[in-house]
């Protein structure tokens, strides 16, 4: 479970400060997919950055499974990101010289690389199968479609079995068919792995797959609402 508790984040803006997050509180339970939407500049990326320990809020707290992760030192924050968070950004950012399987084995928590043990390989293969790429394990990034690259990206984020998955505009580089497949995949994995998932998106075509949808305007949640099913 991830809890954002009364988060305030501001950036310097000339002589004043610009409020990017204005007392934001939000919880995603285990197995829950929460969509976060809102106009450009409303604070969506700022929210994910704070949740990912990549930005420090002015005030408020982030808790994962009841433990506060705000205000940690650099090493402790890096450990939280490695062990408890899965992070999926807009672009897949795969390593061009590694095949799909090795992208997963290169993640430090899998202790892999060339010397990856059997157990690590088996779990990487299993993850690729879970994202529908069992047959593409040996393909290089340039041999994969945009949608397939994003699936590898998602599988890579799940290597450490994170309790929280943070996803920023995962479909913006994809065509509409790949888009719905990626959202469907994230919804399925959230439910089957019991992950707490925050997914930022402009694209509300697949909002019915969210358990909840919240809208940010000027850094504040304006209308938390049950997604219409
Ligand atoms: N590093 C920064 N320094 C100063 N201001 C920033 C910084 N990052 C974001 N902002 C400002 O904070 C506000 C929220 O930005 P943020 O990127 O979180 O919004 P967003 O909803 O993710 O927007 P988009 O949909 O365009 O990505 C905006 O006014 C933005 O200009």
Automatic annotation (TrEMBL):
Keywords from the UniProt entry: ATP-binding, Nucleotide-binding, Transport
Listed PANTHER family: ABC TRANSPORTER RELATED (PTHR24220:SF685), IMPORT ATP-BINDING PROTEIN (PTHR24220)
Domain ABC transporter, residue spans: 2-229
Gene Ontology CC: plasma membrane
GO molecular function, a single term: ATP binding
Name of the protein this chain belongs to: ABC transporter ATP-binding protein
InterPro entries xrefs: AAA+_ATPase, ABC_transporter-like_ATP-bd, ABC_transporter-like_CS, ABC_transpr_LolD-like, MacB-like_ATP-bd, P-loop_NTPase
Entry keyword Isomerase: no
Lineage summary: Bacteria, Bacillati, Actinomycetota, Actinomycetes, Micrococcales
Leader sequence segment: none
